[in-house]
Amino acid sequence: MKRLTCPVCGRFVYFDSLSCLACGTDLVHEPRAVEMRELAVRESCANRDAIGCNWLAEAPGGLCASCALTEILPDLSVSGNLLRWKRIEDAKRRLVQTLIRLHLPLVSRAGNRLRFHLLADEVQADGSVKQVMTGHDNGLVTLNIAEADDDRREAMRLGMGERYRTLLGHCRHEVGHFYFDVLVEEGGRRPEFDRIFGDPDADYQEALQRHYDEGPPEDWAEGFVSAYATMHPWEDFAETFAHWMHMVDGLETAVAYNLAEGADPFGGDPIEPLVAAWVPLSVAMNAMSRSLGQPDLYPFVIGPRVVEKLGFVHGLLRDRLASAA
Ligand SMILES: [Zn+2]
Ligand SMILES: [Zn+2]
Ligand SMILES: [Zn+2]
């Protein structure tokens, strides 16, 4: 993320700032220009008062580009759901900001629109619980809003033996499935994909069963960015896509705060210098986290085969940047 400043006094403000702490100016974020403006009447997203969305409305009095993608909100009469919705939208704006920067289409050639349903588990009349599965289907991303509760998300992370579980990570992973359809399938990149990731037409249910019965292969870290990525080539791609986004956003932030130099993730750099800048930076971030008694910020190792996979994603997205330029 770029470093943002107050348009009036020039002090530094955050991506989610609603006003400048120094001069009190009300702020609105313009996601296409990636800049903060002084808020004018009817310019803000209609969700500003409800959930603190600080983005510019697409049309006066309407929603912003990110909130507009949410088709189903949680039931706001349920206590806690307003906060869950807010947390999910906070994470989603970071995702959508990157999608806008990359000029990625929000509709596939087949006509599937990227959209979000934020749903809760439901207790049925017979007392059983109908669980919401977080996932993707033809552009529809379903998120279980329980993921917005820190205690429940952490319990799920531990239960699944994962190293990392965040709302932003879910957002980035699930849209990875959508951009598999858009950029790989519809983009005619299957031969290269199949060579690097394997056959995405392999039986998914069988792979899922095997993953939960046997776990990942012992040497998974040599070829995959996460244990979950070993499950199926689709999941490998979605995990790699999410990590590409973690890396470019993290690198851009580091450059903006003078913590790294020379890497321009949204420029024309190939993957190798980006990874070469990211790896020592992530090691330093982890060391810093440990110094403060916190868990590792980026608990992952990027091996050579993962670099190849990240390079494939990077190529797809650089093509987008080049074609939009
Ligand atoms: Zn200011
Ligand atoms: Zn909004
Ligand atoms: Zn997935």
TrEMBL record:
It comes from uncultured Rubellimicrobium sp. Residues 5-77 form the Zinc-ribbon domain. This is Zinc-ribbon domain-containing protein.
